[in-house]
Every structure is written in structure tokens, then in C-alpha cells.
């Protein structure tokens, strides 16, 4: 039967907006109808809180419509005929009073048909602040395409130039507001690399400010954490700044093995010892064993438990490999998002083929019976609506709305213990 409950995945417009909203002191002006702004403003504000108030009356000024982020020109029928220049000039005047360090105007798909010269309007309205316009985000493009193109435009507008490199320093590429726990994931990488004497300079699109972005040329190496979102930026920086990049072979540092491989590969590039970070992983492994041994002796789990994953190819590869090798769990469905890295997709196919589990690749995670599902909140909700007695762990957005007051991470040895905690508690109480 045809699956009619799948998510509407974020597209290139969402990717472009989140790329710029992920710059701490930047502002995105959405040139489009009012309805196009609400989701983007809500997610941006949820992932990076700029205002303590949820009261819509606190943001009653024109163009904001009760939300603190992503002001819009609220296009109507007349604007599609006569153009949106006057509204854009008015919203730019309002935004310039808020002390942003970078301004971007992004057309919605409909606004792209009007033909307004965004660069001309910006040049007439904005002085002394880097700014740029995106007239077309790419109709029906993927999130990663929109994200990469917008971030490239942002870096171009800052006029980055090659300079002296800092010894043992990196930028982390491919992290963004769309990812669950992205800020604490960064903190975990910074902590582990810092133990080995490696400095993280920039994480573009993941809450760095403009001044930090200007420091990115000083990094000796770019590390592409998620190639689906960061490879475009890495190639641009290599071309313009001659900064080499690596894509860690084990994927993002999810699980003990991938974390150790991630740190070791970067340390090897600089000729440094990974032992200080590996020692933390070894201690976490010992702690996990204490709980796993008692848990398995009582329930026989998690060995043999069935799980599903819905994620990018790089995330799916790291997660599937860890769950099957470390916990002896069995995949039921591995659904990949539209943004796919071909190299990691090939690695995933090869790994599943070696296990004799190729048939699980491409199955819909929201309609396959399972005991544990790693996906966005919407997919987890869909499974529950179909009375699937499973436990879900959110690894992406949209969220089910759980308030994460305690800081959490999916990366590093702490992230591995957090995932393990969810698995053991989920399987224990699932029907």
C-alpha cells in the first residue's frame, strides 16, 4: 500500500534561511507571503533563543507578525504585478535599526518570479554592512543545496582572504540549526579535540558571529562533519583560501568507535596523539559495560532488538554500524533523507550487504514495525499513531516538543552514553 504519511522534508528555501539564521548576528529578510515565515521563524527561535518572551504583542511591529525572527514583506497580489521594491526598502529600514552585522534578502519561490533586482535594492538601502540577496534558492532543491549555496554567499559577502594559519586548528563544517542538539554536539567536539591540543576556530552556520567567521581563514584544516551540508563550503574554502579539508572516514562521531576514529584521524593529520580523548572514551566504555552487563543478564537485550533509522547517509552509516556491532541490534528500516553523500551511501550499502540486510535500505521508517526508532519527532509520532509499540529517540527536527533543559549531545562518548540510556530505558518499558 502506498505510504501517504511521510514527512514534507525541508527544501532549499528552508536550507538557505537556516544557513543565515545560524549566523549569530545576521538577519534574514524573507521576500514572500506571510505564511512562508512562521515555521522558519519558530524553528530558528527554538534552536537559538534571542528573546525571552513568547508574547506576540512583544513583536507587533510591521513585518514581524508576532515573531522575533525572519521578517517578511508579506507579498500580496499587487506586489506580484508591480514589484516588491517599496516593501523591501521599508523592511530594510526597520532591520537596520537592530544592529545586525550581516543582512540577507531571500526570495520565496513565488517572489523569484517577480524579477525584482535585490542587489540594486540592497545597494540603495544598506551602507557599511555586508549584505546580499538570493533571488532563487532552487525550485524543489534539497535542504543541503539551499544551505550550502546561502552559506557560500554569506562568506563571499564578508570578503574572506587567505592569511596566516594557526597551528593545530580546524573549522567544523556541515553543522546547522536543523540538527538536534547541534550546539552541544559542537561543544563535545571542541572538548575532545581540545584535550589533544587542537583548536576549533569556526563552525559556520551554527551560531558563529560575523567576527568569528572572519577568523576562519586562519584554520589549518577544515573538518567536514556532515558532507551532505558541509562539502560545498569545504570546496569553496579550498578554492578561495587554499585550506585543505578532510571528511572523517567513519562519519560523524556517533558512538564510541566513530568518536575514536574521528579524533584519531584529525590528530593524525597534525601529528598529535589522540590518547587524551581516547582515555575519556575508554572510561565511558567501562561505564556502559557495567549497565549493559546487568541489563542483558535480566532481559537479554539490547542484543537482537530491532531498530529503524531515518537520517542522512553519513549519520545512518555511523549509527547503524555502532548499533549492530557494539549492541548486536538488528536493523528493520534504514531510510535516507534527500540530502545524501554518495560515498557514505555506498559505505552503508556495502555494510548492510555484508550483514545480509540490504533489503532494509529504503524502507519507510514511519511504517515499518520496530522496537526502537531513531528519527525526527514527526516520524516517531506517525509510528505511534499506527499503534506501533516502539520507543523513539529524536535525532532530527521537527521535534515532538520535549523541553531539553539539561544539555544533551549525540556526539562523543557522552553522546554514546545518552543514546545507550535511551535504548535501554526504551526497550525496558516498550510493549
Automatic annotation (TrEMBL):
<dbReference type="Pfam" id="PF00148">
    <property type="entry name" value="Oxidored_nitro"/>
</dbReference>
<feature type="domain" description="Nitrogenase/oxidoreductase component 1">
    <location>
        <begin position="14"/>
        <end position="425"/>
    </location>
</feature>
<protein>
    <submittedName>
        <fullName>Nitrogenase component 1</fullName>
    </submittedName>
</protein>
<dbReference type="InterPro" id="IPR049939">
    <property type="entry name" value="NifE-like"/>
</dbReference>
<dbReference type="InterPro" id="IPR000510">
    <property type="entry name" value="Nase/OxRdtase_comp1"/>
</dbReference>
